[in-house]
Amino acid sequence: TEKPLPLVPDQFSFENERAMLTLLGAKDMKKVDVFSFPRLAISNLDSKILQGKMFASDGVRMAYMSEALNELSGELKIFSKVRHNVSGLQAFIDFSKELETCDISSEDILSLTEKMSSGLLKDKLYEINLINDAYNALLHRSYFDDTEALKYFNKFAEETRFFENKTVFLDSFRAFSEQEYKCIRLALVNAKDVYITICNDDNIKGDSPFIYMQELKKKLISLANKSNVKIAPIIKINENERLSKSIRHIEKNIYIEDFQKQTDECNEVTIFKCNDITDECNTIALKIKKLIRSGK
User: Taking all residues of the chain, what is their mean pLDDT, rounded to a whole number?
Assistant: First the structure.
């Protein structure tokens, strides 16, 4: 039988693996693989795609972005001095990653600039696209950009029907990138079952923090309908069994003006004043260290 396939955000993968270990035990834990989208993609990359290339590190990205800007120095007017600025280089790298995540190509940007009236914004966008093209050309000569892993995985999953007969679970997500939506569509079409959990409130009002989760829900339902996939009745879990009573009380009252005070003793929540983020990190690290030593 196929292993269940839980997909969670990168930052929750360890937490979910620990929860699975607690729930199933060490022996049965081997029957479940917990993945994030990047881990799923990278673990299934074909050697033909990698072509013996190493994954690009942050240092490699920085070096190639600097080289790209140096090569274009004679053509750039707005961003000619960015190559001397580390934060500027990082901003261009982050932008390049964002384009890949959102599935926006160089041609898409060129098409957009052609429709724009002359001005600083158009010139900026043109130069940014020029820099990104040069950067990608240099990077891809010797290295594989793991930002593109999910794009290649989606092609692989479609060709091989990777999700066929699998039971897929998506948990703890607040949003999905365009490449992740494409992956979800493949799972919806080919998998045996797909379960998606969303932290939501159907009775939202005004500027509720759950508005974006409502939009996520609508988009997932629309994706299933467009893929001709039957949607099972939604199961609503109203009781929060994951958190302590005090945490649940805070969660319920933190966003409302007419909040209720907790009268019971509270040992799960600690409030402390920090001077800055360094002080905050040191305090939390010390608390973690004490918990580990105590075995709790």
Answer: 87
